Amino acid sequence: MIRCYITERGLGSVESLLRSGGVDWVQVRDKELPARELIDVVRRAMAWGGKILVNTRVDVAIAAGAAGVHLPAGSIAPAEWRAITPSGFLIGVSCHSREEVVDAEREGADYVVFGPVFAPLSKTSDLAPRGLEELGRAAGAVKIPVLALGGITEENARSCVEAGAAGVAGITMFQRDAG
């Protein structure tokens, strides 16, 4: 099961989570930082191991030498970015429906994050929870890994994998694990 920690601001408990094997991937998401500072944060995280992905900023991910980038729904298609990204560079996409998951795979995504599966724990959402059944339909429609997001806890993570997800992504769950 892939475990992807999405940071909010700064790296917080990332080092301990990576060193302990508590997470496999880290999506560095800090919308407030200028590019130069974000590159420094990403490089610091890369020193601790695991796959480090940068939220939205393809330029920063490439400049820092990160494993990849995570794009929001409605972004430029992953296939468009392939011309400027290095070989093996991961490109993920946020998706909220089975159709978006299928489109993301067709457009060249290496993985998707699907949600919210349950009501989010770290923020409010205008999107209704999709549930395990819809997660299973989305994961079953593609060959690429689908990570469940939204309201993920240690207690329900296994049910997401049983429904067909390759793993889980989240914020709160990993903050609790590290705390």
Q: If you compute it from the alpha carbons, what radius of gyration comes out, rounded to the nearest whole angstrom?
A: 15 Å
**Major beta-sheet overview:** 8 strands, parallel, barrel
Number of helices: 8
Q: What number of structural domains do the residues give? A: 1
Which class best fits the helix and strand makeup?
A: alpha/beta
CATH superfamily: Aldolase class I
Strand order of the largest sheet: 1-2-3-4-5-6-7-8
Q: How much of the residues is beta strand, in percent?
A: 15-25%
Q: Tell me, rounded to a whole number, the average pLDDT.
A: 94
CATH C-level name: Alpha Beta
Q: Give me the CATH fold name.
A: TIM Barrel
Helix content: 25-40%
Order of helices and strands: EHEHEHEHEHEHEHEH
What is the total tally of β strands? 8
SSE inventory with pairings:
Layout: E1 2-6, H1 14-20, E2 25-28, H2 35-46, E3 51-55, H3 58-64, E4 68-71, H4 78-81, E5 90-95, H5 98-106, E6 111-114, H6 131-140, E7 146-148, H7 154-163, E8 167-170, H8 172-178
Parallel strand pairs: 1-2, 1-8, 2-3, 3-4, 4-5, 5-6, 6-7, 7-8
Helix pairs in contact: 2-3, 5-6, 6-7
